[in-house]
Automatic annotation (TrEMBL):
This is Two pore channel protein 2. It is a multi-pass membrane protein. The keyword Phosphoprotein does not apply. The lineage of its organism: Eukaryota, Metazoa, Chordata, Craniata, Vertebrata. It catalyses: Ca(2+)(in) = Ca(2+)(out); Na(+)(in) = Na(+)(out).
Length: 701
């Protein structure tokens, strides 16, 4: 009896591992199985996720903090400075949770597996360094300038996600090919830098040396000017002095831009896409193997419970034992019910390995819910109304009315663009908003009448439409209650939290947002939008690594540039000082600056001009930080993002364009198995070989 219970519990855990695509290489004795299920329970994983969130957000309240209304150092009030020991106490609690986490993980996989797991070793090392740095902080009463543990915090987020670790591994395998193109870019930049220094050398006539003075005075300045030109951030400023002197100089800049931007940068994108395009396929293939291995492991541990002849060539699992296992497994209720229905309709009382595996293919499907039926009216008049207001043309009429609403708002905004607030008459805008909102309410009620409330709410577009209509109606009623009905000269003073103009603007913004309801009625636009929304699920791991990189660079910026900039009297200096002061404020505003640089809106040159105005000696060292960020974010990361985006988009576009029309109930593959049609099923030999390599599970055959 004890052995049977152990086999049942092992099968339960293996099936749950298969559902979550987890590795089955863990201890399988009774106590370890209980601890394993407790560790992966919702409450434990929620606590771990909350702990990671808390330790990452500590940077927003630690010194230096940016929890102020404005980021401008000239106007903001002093930020709250937490007392020494407050954030450190929260950190200690987080470290205790992480120590429990790594201890449980290490115990569950065993010593042999632990030695092979580099992530767990790095986890322990990160905790040791963080705790040592925490002790140093308390020893100095929180007055130390550099806190190493703050840079290490993103690691806790990284190691907790298997998909993020797979993504990082794929990126690491792509780096050698990227390095060759980056080296080619460096050669291109160096050659043109030498050409520029020779072409724009200093002459006897100082009035003609504007290009040399501004951009090509020495090797570092020349290299910086062309590097910024490679990002197009200083185009055409960098060439204006030379172009003013002689139009022929434009040939140099054109050649540099064409070779660098049009050829080399796009070549880098092509190489990265070629190397990285198999990332999802490999990842999903690995996930499929884990799922099949977990299901096969459950079959192997259940098969001894079924009495079979000694000379039997094939093992079987009892249907009753599987029922017992399924009652204990935590899984989606739809999948569990579908598997149980299949078992009940099965004519046999035992399952072979192939039948057992096929039964759990239900996990690879995601059911689209069937829309409820429309109400059936007895009255002929009501049936006609149902036909009229349930027809697609009624929805098209609503789209035309929404378009007319947008056009009327645009006309009013154009007419009132140059008027002072005291000269503006809100009567016309208030009247048309009232009319259109009443139409939206009537349209919603008529659709509910034709379709029924349950069927109406079963469509996401209707829920979106109904929610905005409800909000618009509430705002309109609040406006009338506070300011009365629209009339000529309708310009009451501020009453309550919002003025009339603020209320009208809020209503108009929601009306514009409501116009997105047309998307489901436009086939190809709906296809693009739904594809992009589905991509979000695939890009979560990639976005997580991007957050890790942003966070690490932002913290590094705080450490490097803290207190380097103070408000200056000159307006130009104030603006430039404000840009870099974000690095001295806190990680939030550092992240904003870093993000703007990655989008090429602010760049190294502006920041270094500020340094030249205040700290001449460290400008060159500041360039290293920003160049490193540009290489990682704009050159490497953006191209990796484009590669992943293209792979997802092309695949989903092809599948959707060739997909058959939806029936009332259709099964679609989950996101993890979106490549199901091109994946290879693992063979019997591969599964059994991997099971025999399990460090804690010893099979009889």
């Amino acid at each position: 009896g004890a052995d049977n219970d152990l086999y049942i519990n092992q099968a339960v855990v293996f099936i749950e591992d298969a559902i979550k695509y987890r590795s089955i290489n863990h201890r399988v004795d009774s106590k370890s199985l209980w601890l394993y299920r407790w560790y992966y329970s919702r409450i434990c994983q929620w606590i771990l996720g909350l702990t990671i969130t808390v330790i990452l957000t500590l940077a927003f309240i630690e010194t230096p903090s940016s929890l102020t209304v404005t980021s401008d150092i000239r106007y903001r009030l002093p930020a709250w400075d937490p007392p020494c020991g407050l954030t450190e106490s929260i950190e200690l609690l987080c470290f205790l949770v992480f120590m429990i986490d790594v201890s449980v993980k290490s115990y569950l996989i065993g010593w042999e597996e632990f030695r092979k797991t580099k992530w767990l070793m790095a986890y322990i090392l990160t905790l040791i360094v963080s705790l040592a740095d925490w002790i140093v902080s308390l020893s100095f009463f929180c007055t130390e300038n550099v806190r190493i543990r703050r840079i290490l915090r993103p690691f806790f987020l990284l190691q907790n996600s298997s998909m993020m670790k797979k993504t990082l591994k794929s990126i690491n395998s792509t780096l050698p090919e990227m390095a060759s193109v980056v080296l080619l870019l460096a050669v291109h930049l160096s050659l043109f830098t030498m050409f520029a220094m020779l072409l724009f050398a200093r002459t006897k006539d100082g009035q003609q040396d504007k290009e040399w003075v501004g951009y090509f005075r020495n090797l570092p300045d020349s290299l910086t000017s062309l590097l910024v030109l490679l990002t197009t951030a200083n185009n055409p400023d960098v060439m204006i002095p030379a172009y003013s002197k002689n139009r022929a100089y434009s040939v140099f800049f054109i050649l540099f831009t064409v070779l660098g931007n049009l050829f080399l940068m796009n070549l880098l994108t092509a190489i990265i896409y070629n190397q990285f395009r198999g990332y999802l396929l490999k990842s999903v293939q690995s996930s499929l193997f884990r799922r099949r291995l977990g299901i096969r492991a459950a079959f192997e541990v259940l098969s001894p419970l079924k009495e079979t002849p000694a000379n039997a060539q094939e093992l079987y699992v009892s249907v009753g034992d599987l029922f017992h296992v399924l009652q204990k497994v935590e899984m989606d209720s739809r999948c569990k019910q579908a598997i149980m229905r299949s078992l009940k309709t099965c004519s046999c009382d035992q399952l072979s390995a192939a039948q057992f595996q096929k039964l759990f293919e239900e996990l690879d499907k995601d059911a689209i819910k069937q829309h409820p039926a429309s109400p059936e009216y007895q009255s002929r008049f009501m049936r006609k109304m149902q036909f009229a207001f349930g027809h697609p043309y009624f929805g098209y009429l609503g789209n035309v009315v929404a378009l007319a609403n947008i056009v009327s708002i645009c006309v009013v905004l154009v007419m009132d663009a140059d008027k002072q607030p005291s000269e503006r008459d809100d009567f016309f805008l208030g009247a048309i908003n009232c009319f259109f909102i009443l139409y939206y309410l009537l349209e919603m009620l008529l659709k509910i009448l034709a379709m029924g409330l349950k069927r109406y709410l079963s469509y996401p577009s209707n829920r979106f439409d109904g929610l905005l209509t409800g909000i618009l109606l509430v705002l309109e009623i609040a406006t009338f209650a506070a300011y009365g009905f629209p009339h000529p000269g309708w310009r009451p003073e501020l009453m309550g939290l919002l003025s009339l103009w603020d209320m009208v603007r809020l209503v108009n913004m929601l009306i514009v947002f409501r116009f997105l309801r047309i998307i489901p009625n436009m086939k190809f636009m709906a296809l693009v939008v739904t594809t992009l929304l589905d991509l979000v699920k695939n890009l979560r791991a990639f976005a997580g690594i991007l957050v890790v990189v942003f966070y690490a660079f932002a913290i590094t910026g705080i450490i490097l540039f803290k207190g380097a900039v103070v408000p200056m009297g000159n307006i130009r200096q104030n603006y430039l000082g404000w840009i870099l002061s974000r690095f001295a404020a806190c990680v939030g505003w550092v992240g904003v600056t870093v993000e703007q640089i990655s989008q090429k809106r602010l760049w190294l040159y502006t920041v270094c001009v500020m340094y030249l105005l205040s700290f001449n000696l460290i400008c060159r060292w500041a360039k290293i930080y920003f160049v490193a960020w540009w290489l990682i974010s704009s050159v490497i990361w953006v191209n990796l993002f484009v590669a992943l985006l293209l792979e997802n988009f092309i695949h989903k576009w092809d599948r959707r364009c060739h997909r058959e029309p939806l029936s009332d109930i259709e099964y679609q593959r989950t996101v993890e198995l979106m490549f199901r049609d091109v994946l290879e099923e693992p063979t019997e030999e591969e599964l059994m070989e991997r099971l025999h390599q399990h460090p804690h599970l010893h099979l009889c055959r």
